[in-house]
Automatic annotation (TrEMBL):
SUPFAM superfamilies: Cytochrome P450. It comes from Lentinula raphanica. Its cofactor is heme. This is Cytochrome P450. Belongs to the cytochrome P450 family. Heme binds at C454. It comes from the Eukaryota.
Length: 521
């Protein structure tokens, strides 16, 4: 009895010490959480803001994001996500504040890490050292003129293989997946010259990786961090895509590394002018050469993802609008044929196609690739010029779908005006403005300006013009019932109807088409 009595003070002392330790750890975290919530509570909510009811709103946001964003548009507001809040803003002033913000305050990379679960889907090395962005911004873009013939040849061959329409017969084509195959082929023929872009398995895995990265990110968001590596391994197809891609690319990478050793330089005779070479040129130094095969393979897949995903959505939307609006075909076709007859199928020719550029930009204004853009992770409390404070830890974005349908920014915003932007460019002093690749605070598809504006936009827009140009040049298209199918929304992400078919028929060459074809030789 005396032994038990003597232990009581020691037990009490240990419990008190544990209580102090727990209080030291959790009280500051609780106070930090409460301060953060007070700042978030000062921002209006669209939907419920209560602890339990907010989960109902989060579920609704998954299926009705467009309507919810439009409801809150014109002010800063927040919406509930399954595990946090997202603050959505709009207006030139707030966009400019985001554009000028330091990466120490608002991080694009950390936002991608969270929304795309990029460490598990796109590769952690690409987040830690994003040198592939410099590759896309510089050699990939600068080589577009020199390599445009390769791009054009593959576009022509891809359409002939994937849409084998005849002159006297209409055929039905499942549009989105066909476009993805064509873009995967053309992009990879440009990216990796030593590997045939027509390799069926490489094309298939490029598409699968694009789809799996998006679906994998959605799956991973529902699991705590400790379980994500396991979920990635067993509930996504990303590891298998990496393994297959390594099988295709490892020998090419090692051969080029051997050439560097042989010549003692990264510049050696016969060096291919492609993405692998550009990445290896950038991957200098001991740290960047660690696990070099995985580093290069994962970045090739990442660049593929960027090239295939957005471009496929944009191209499919454009074809849907053409099929549903046959009156737009002739003026666009005349522009393509006249410019190609003069300049051939070249990068310079693509730059001259103002009407086609306007049509593509208008397509994206109406449809886009999602309801928000310029997504950032708030690393430190951020105060906008108008006094709105967004606390650290929140995800923040711009309500692009609201801006693009705002009648104070666009006349008749619900109407497809294919030449809206080319008409603006025809005014004095406006010739370089309103381009699809330009900086426009009312059109935020490519990021609204600043250092995080999409580095691949020049490649993407030139490729899009060449793709749509080939359709205008070689085919007639229509919907069987004349109606454009409704899009599909998954949270803030947008996709054209995955099952919709477009009818194609090969055009009988006319005099203008023959002249243009000769001009492209």
């Amino acid at each position: 009895m005396s032994t038990q009595t003597s232990l009581l003070p020691q037990v009490s002392q240990a419990l008190a010490l544990c209580a102090i330790c727990l209080a030291t750890i959790f009280i500051p975290k609780f106070l930090q959480w409460r301060t953060r919530m007070q700042k978030l509570n000062a921002i209006p909510t669209v939907g419920h803001s209560g602890f339990f009811l907010s989960y109902i709103s989060a579920r609704k946001f998954k299926t009705h994001a467009q309507e919810i964003i439009l409801e809150g548009y014109s002010k800063a507001f927040k919406v509930a996500l399954p595990d946090q809040w997202e603050v959505i803003v709009s207006g030139r002033e707030m966009i400019e504040d985001i554009r000028k913000a330091s990466d120490l305050d608002l991080s694009f990379i950390e936002a991608v890490r969270e929304t795309m679960q990029s460490d598990y889907t796109l590769g952690k090395p690409a987040r830690v050292d994003a040198y592939h962005i410099d590759v896309v911004r510089t050699p990939l873009t600068r080589n577009l003129g020199a390599k445009f013939d390769e791009l054009r040849d593959e576009i022509k061959a891809s359409f002939a293989d994937e849409i084998p329409a005849k002159e006297m017969e209409w055929i039905k084509v499942p549009m989105l997946y066909t476009v993805m195959k064509i873009i995967a082929r053309t992009s990879n023929q440009y990216f990796v010259v030593s590997l045939s872009g027509r390799d069926p398995d490489f094309i298939k895995l490029s598409i699968e990786f694009t789809v799996d990265a998006v679906t994998g990110a959605r799956a991973l968001q529902h699991y705590p961090g400790i379980f994500k590596p396991i979920v990635r391994q067993f509930l996504t197809n990303v590891p298998n895509c990496l393994k297959r891609a390594t099988g295709h690319l490892e020998l090419l990478i090692r051969e080029r590394l051997e050439k560097e050793k042989e010549y003692g330089s990264s510049d050696w005779p016969g060096k291919p002018n492609d993405l692998i070479s550009w990445l290896l040129d950038e991957a200098q130094g001991h740290e960047r050469r660690k696990d070099i095969v995985y580093n290069i393979v994962s970045r090739v897949l990442l660049v593929n993802f960027s090239a295939i995903h957005t471009t496929s959505v944009t191209c499919t939307n454009a074809l849907f609008y053409l099929a549903a609006n046959p009156h737009l075909v002739q003026p666009l076709r005349e522009e393509v044929e006249s410019i190609v007859a003069e300049l051939g199928w070249t990068k310079a020719a693509m730059g001259k196609m103002h009407k086609l550029d306007s049509f593509l930009k208008e397509t994206q204004r109406l449809s886009g690739v999602g309801g928000v853009t310029m997504v950032r992770k708030v690393l430190r409390d951020f105060t906008f010029s108008n006094g709105t404070v967004v606390p650290a830890g929140a995800i923040m974005s711009v309500a692009s779908v609201g801006m693009h349908h705002d009648n104070t920014l666009y006349e008749d915003p619900e109407e497809m005006k294919a030449f809206r932007f080319s008409n603006m460019r025809s005014k004095e002093g406006e010739g370089l403005k309103h381009r699809m690749v330009g900086i426009d605070p009312t059109f935020t598809l490519f990021g609204g300006g600043g250092r995080h504006m999409c580095p691949g936009r020049f490649f993407a827009v030139s490729e899009l013009k060449a793709l749509i140009g080939e359709v205008l040049f070689a085919y007639d298209i229509k919907f069987e019932n004349g109606e454009m199918p409704a899009p599909e929304w998954q949270g803030v992400n947008f996709s054209p109807n995955r099952f919709a078919q477009v009818m194609f028929k090969r055009r009988i060459p006319g005099p203008a088409q023959v002249r243009a074809d000769r001009g492209s030789l």
